[in-house]
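Database export, one record per block. Field names are fixed; values are copied verbatim from the stored entry.
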Amino acid sequence: MAKIKHNNFIDTVDEVLSGAKKEGVLHLYAEDKVLTGRTIQIKGKEMFHFGTTGYLGLEQDIRLKDAAIAAIQNYGTQFPLSKSYISHPLYNELEQKIELMYGIPPIITKNSTLGHLAVIPTLIRDEDAIIMDHQVHWSVQNACQLLKLRGIPVEMIRHCNLEMLEDKIKKLTSRCNKIWYMADGVYSMFGDYAPIPELLALTQKYPRLNLYFDDVHGMSWKGKNGTGFVFDAIKELPENCIVVSTLSKTFGASGATVFCKNQKLRDKIKNFGGPLTFSAQLEPASVAAAIASADIHLSPEIELRQKDLADKIGYFNQLLSEGNLPIISKNDSPVFFLGMGTPIMAYNFVQRLFKEGFFLNLGIYPAVPIKNTGIRITLSSHNQQQDIMALAEAMEYHFPKALEETNNSENKIRQAFGIDSRKTEKSSESKELKLFIEEKNTIQDIEKSEWNQYMGKQNVFDWDGMVYLEKTFSRHPDPTNQWDFYCYSIKDNKGNIVLMAFFTYGLWKDDMLATESVSIHLEKIRKTNPLYLTSKVLSMGSLFTEGKHCFINQEHPLAEKAVKLLLDSIEEKYNALNADMLVLRDFEVGNKYNKAILDQGYFKIDMPESCVVQNQLWNTNEEFADGLSPRSRKHFNKEIEPYEKCYDVAIKGRLSKSEMARAYQLYNNVKDNNYAINTFRYTQEVFENMNESPNWEFIVLTLKTETENQFVGVMFCYKNNNHTYVPELIGMEYKWAKEYQLYRQLLFQTIKRANVLQFQKIDFGVSASFEKRKLGAKIVSKVAYIQTRDNYAMELMNTLQNDYKSITK
């Protein structure tokens, strides 16, 4: 089978961030002639600055500025030489003062990103393994990916999920020497903490476990001598722990620091730690500023600065507690995250706060899940108490305004973040509501004529097809073949159908659209753990069907409102089911509802291409060939038509017991050889139910030379309402596939059968689009829209795909 075109993660990120840029909330420029830290000017407007990561305001301290200026005068703008040869005159003093702060000699790097690239490949041995928190900083994740080329296991867990962590430790213990868990001390978006006491307890329980922390957001505002959140929690650095901190952000200078207790390891990193060996060293001005900052950290002044910031954090927390804003992860860090839910809500709120004179950061995909878009607010010593009070008042005032303008609700936001609502909300629905939505859990509760009028010409989901699907999958004992059904109808107050759709709820493989190499790897694991990397998904349509699963009367004046009503209703269902993912499938590229759907917190991905044959009426093979392009005609005359005489072709409305066993065997052959779209294997009951339905038939190919007289190919086809012919599944004996062009012959015989029955359309499905195009199929590009609880599965799939791309190059 031809490989499908998979969605590019970078394209999705680019589209989301480009949208935010167009809204004027990203990729901005400060316009100040002089920066003070308290305010910042953007697009001609001076705003109070609540977006800095310089939490103690040391970047504006006159002592750091004077030290940097003097260093430039004395030593120049840079010292252009690798530290492996010689460090400039100020480095030794800085290293000594950092050692006084921590009680451990530091390794100083250009920045934390280069620090991770220097440390991680040197630290991790070939016999070791890595487990990453999926929210650990990108710079850590990027450095860890390099280790896969050495065959080192790199695993990922959901954020702070200690049960998942322990499970992976158990599995890796028997085959790895050391297991390194990578985490942030303070996470940059939500401002939440690594569970350090619990992690230290795990190191006692599992001696192979080691800890690696990126604590750049915990630096200076916390701990003795401002040594950071992690050192404050662990008190003394153990042998099995590495901490990377920073001389930028709160420290007010530039560079990063690495701490490990093992002198031999420290020397090894300094001797050959990638960027430490080959990159330029910190500029004299940066080192001088860091020395001045270290002096402050070593003096009683640091405690006064920490207390001043802690008082402001406490004050802001108090103000927030008096309101009902959905603040995520309440604690004593200077990072606050106000949940917005959807990007459009966040854009509206940020723009409102900008106009009021407050600069805040947008927190958006991929830093957070698209449905967990929000506003990151950071406090610093520059903020005055009156600024903080004014911000809290502005947030309380504009939050409900933004909700109203974006047709959002506080309860929806709280559900998206998994926090409880504290107030009973008033309904935002108008008394003049003109749309009504009905949910049915079985097609039997919907009039056959009504369903078929709007949905009846599509794939395997006309009314009779839905009966088959429900009978087959509704109460299936195998959880991988078991779905719940939800049919939605939206009518206006005159009873006219505006929208109709159906959804299913069941298990999907997380790698369904991943590259084949990833799925092959994961299927080996699933031999002993069948539900490994699977998710509960509420999806428009089903895994068995494709096409337009949603009818929208686009001429109706309330069509877009109907779409929004459906989105609200299925989001409620999604939350009630506690599903992992919500998927709207098979929309046309450039559809008119694209913005409305994206605004509700979905991101868009490319779906595999569909193949459709339409309006072909012909009497002979020659007539069929004449309807093809010259190149396709040549292919048909050489690779397909000559082989037709090798087969006996039978159309069967029902298979015998032995024939059904053979057909199922051939289906499994294809399933075992095709991972382009990796779904669960269908049980034999799925095929036996086809046998009982008059709408299904089987195209059976038997080789005339085959002495055992067993058929070698079968196409499982659904006849929809005398309109659409659907070759849903295929089975083949692969040993004949190449010699007798079996796959191509099955495709042609399907077209031939549909032509005999005078069907107007053949839904040829996805994958192998190159082969189907050569037989006259039209290629249809489609998109899907997705919401997820978190980014774990997507980031893991992207990591695995990059991993196997590197291996196969």
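Remark 1: The first strand starts at residue 39 and ends at 42.
Remark 2: Residues 1-7, 423-431 have pLDDT under 50 and may be disordered.
End of record.
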